[in-house]
Amino acid sequence: MPYEYRIAEGRLGDEPTVTVSAPDGAVRVVLALRGATLLSWQVARGAAGQLTELPELTELTELPELTELVDGYRGEAELLSQDGVRAGLLAPFSNRVADGRYHHGGRGHDLLPGRVGDRTIYHGFAREAPFRLIGATTTADSARLLLRSTSIRPDRYPGYPFALDLDVEYTIGRRELGIEIRATNVGETTAPYASGWHPYFTLSRPVDDLVLQIPAHTLIRTDATLIPLRGKEALLPLDRCPGMDFRTPRRLGDAVIDACFADLTPGPDGRTETVLSDPATGAELRLWQHGGYLHVFTGDTLARDRRASIALEPVEVPTDAYNRPEQANALSLEPGRQREFRFGVTYRPSTH
User: Fold this and answer.
1) Residue ranges of the chain with per-residue pLDDT less than 50
2) How far apart are CA 253 and CA 211, in angstroms?
3) Would you state the torsion angle of the CA atoms of residues 288, 289, 294, 298, taken in this order, to the nearest 10 degrees?
4) Please, which residues bridge with residue 342 across strands?
5) Which segments of the chain does DSSP mark as H helices, in order?
6) What is the Cα–Cα distance from 289 to 105, expressed in whole angstroms?
7) Could you tell me whether strands 88-90 and 196-198 are parallel, antiparallel, or unpaired per DSSP bridges?
8) Which residues contact 70 (CB under 8 A, 6 or more apart)?
9) What secondary structure, in 3-state letters, does 48-78 show?
10) How far apart are CA 216 and CA 238, in angstroms?
């Protein structure tokens, strides 16, 4: 009988969590049910084998050394504050909606009714929504968890009178973490919808020392409030912006980035791969996604540990898509229809 991945319920303060661990201790993942949020992804530094027989727990006398690969929330207070949106799942919109207002279906909507002054809103509602674990499968090589939220309803969030069911499926392997977000419109009207992910990755070194490669050909230009310029004015070929061109691997150094990259080139398998690497060790993280855009944030304004990690964010659409007519078709989710967005990350450990 194979010794399978283990799943255990726990708590982060009063917040429920789920911990997934490999049979030999070479992988450990912790999720908060609030927002289906990834809190920790730890993987063995060295080579990991595969257990095919069920050993006694007392035989596991030496656990492998693990390395943390995401800079997630470290306690209940951080999770509740949502500062930095650490590993937040972004839906039904990602990044900002200009002035908290948009038009859809011939009507104007205000996501911040009554708010004066700062009307910044970003990253949707899913990151704070209650999820529940509705299914799990385990093998000797991986675990798959399915989490669901039914909290997005017309009377729940101001300015968003639509009904969505959200499913988030995590697949946890030896060196890879895969995520699929699926939204089903369970309402009676077409809803604007897009998703993404906001993870901060670490290779145990400051951002300045790491090397980044992004297979993108276009930068989305923004104004001072990080809202993209109108129409084609937002599209800047990276040939004309060498300081932001990472098609060839480049050391990040003191670069300050909070920007969206477009026209990503997929590989033969249809996945686009963005590579973060540590030249001192050869360790790599390969963020992959099926379609969409990539937002990069070097963490310069974080309340904790600025520039200790970097946000590499796969997103379906660019910032303020709700106010961009050219994104209307990409956003529209008709009643009874479902849409999914798939992405994940692969770890390649140190080579020396």
Assistant:
1) 1, 47-61
2) 9
3) -30
4) 180
5) 76-81, 328-331
6) 30
7) antiparallel
8) 38, 40, 41, 86, 87, 199, 200, 201, 202, 309
9) CCCCCCCCCHHHCCCCCCEEECECCCCCHHH
10) 8
Query: What does the alpha-carbon distance between residue 185 and residue 193 come to, in Å, rounded to a whole number?
Result: 9
Query: Among all chains, which residue has been given the structure tokens 């084609």?
Result: 232
Report pTM. 0.94
CB atoms within 10 A of CB 256: 12
DSSP state of 63: P
Q: List the beta bridge partners of residue 241.
A: none
What would the two tokens of residue 255 be?
């670069």
Q: How many helices (H) and strands (E) does the chain have?
A: 2, 26
Q: Which residues of 43-75 are buried (b: 16+ CB within 10 A; e: fewer)?
A: bbbeebeebeeeeeeeeeeeebebbebbbbbee
Query: Do residues 211 and 249 lie in contact, with contact meaning Cβ atoms separated by under 8 Å?
Result: yes
Rounded-to-integer distance, Cα 266 and Cα 279, Å: 24
* Residue corresponding to tokens 């480049």: 250
How many Cα atoms occupy the beta-carbon half-sphere of 90 within 13 Å? 28
Instruction: Put the strands of the sheet holding 66-68 in their side by side order.
Output: 6-12, 15-21, 27-32, 37-44, 66-68
pLDDT digits (tens, 9 = 90+) for 18-48: 999 999 999 999 999 999 999 999 999 864 4
